[in-house]
Fold:
Amino acid sequence: MSDIPAQRGRPHSVPRDVLGPVAPGPGEPAFDDDHPPRRNLVDDCVHCGFCLPTCPTYVLWGEEMDSPRGRIHLMKQGLDGEPLTPSMVAHVDRCLGCMACVTACPSGVRYDRLIEDTRQQVERRHRRPRRERALRAAVFALFPYPRRLRLLRGPLRAYQASGLRRLVRRTGLLPRLAPQLAALDSLAPRIGPAGDIPPRVPAQGRRRATVGLLTGCVQRAFFPEVNAATARVLAAEGCDVLILPERQGCCGALSVHNGRRAEAQRFARGLVDAFDSAGIDYFVVNAAGCGSALKEYGELLADDPAYAKRAAGFAGTVRDLSELLVELGPVAPRHPLPVTVAYHDACHLAHAQGVRTQPRELLRAVPGVELREIADPEICCGSAGVWNVLNPEPAERLGDRKARDVLATGADLLVTANPGCLMQIAAGVRRLGGSLTVAHTIQILDASIRARPVGDLLR
Ligand code: SF4
Ligand code: SF4
Structure:
């Protein structure tokens, strides 16, 4: 059964990504007229190179065409009529979409818009090799569907608990035979209790706002404790929390960030239908990648007359959890939590949404928390949605680099606001033989508000 809530309103046309790519003929220009990268945005780049040191792929390979400037040059070539070559596609595919270049750029180049438009052209117009197509089909048939992911919990738990995982790892065969499966194996978190969340959690004390809460896909299936902590903290801070777990599906972030625009639009319409008449003041998100996509719903559905206005209105209510908590100000008392915390800026929170100070402010307000900064915070950890599954080798190198910087802080806990980063950095720490507990920002606040012992977090 589909996870997408039943759609109301007009029937939607068959999306192009379901029909498969329509490859251009030989020598045809790279881009068609359906949202090509915008020339005026390409022309904004003055080739200064300030973005290069912040780009993880340039840091890894030192190749101009794997830098933001190089990719913008390739887009320009495409607009000038060059065909979409496998090499051009490879350089586009290697971009993590981390948006570090957007914040680094002094000329305000909207690389985020450029790469999104380029990727949807690539997805529609480039026919990938069979193996790659099969891998992508499998990834996108699984990850944006929380109920399908939930079905994996049982087998994964048995695999982890039975000793089979240790055996598989000892053979060392998996990375050689199936590197993508090996990546999934190394990333998978320890599966805890499923823990269902009720459709509504009432505010404690005076109600200050009514909020919708996105439960997400990976977050809902593998980190249900983060959603539970989010609902508890919001309620303790005076919010009525509306969850509607039966009505909400994927927000479309994974799809839009990978060029699957029509699929992302379907998911976005479903979420707008589920929440825009629910009487909420804010729609709260606790996963960085999802938040950045949700804030762009107005743009994503701009061409759809039935949804454009509703989507833009809905996007205006979207808040990262830390943004809303700072906006509201604390009312629930914080109890001491003596712990050192290294805070990792998730790219889609820091670079894509500009949310850096709020999580730190919330953490510093907990008595006993000592906050430590991680070196090179602008460099992505290599998670980037499913980039680490599609590109396991470079993702591992970026993960190890980040894990080393995190371990160097000497903190007890790594805290961040994205499930992908949590899994990626935890895997890097394990590979380096280190030991460090990871947690979402909201779990620190929840533990402090509920006066839980710090040992609960460090288990
Ligand atoms: S989005 Fe990230 S990986 Fe892509 S070009 Fe910009 S800095 Fe490099
Ligand atoms: S994207 Fe911005 S920082 Fe990078 S080369 Fe172009 S103008 Fe310079």
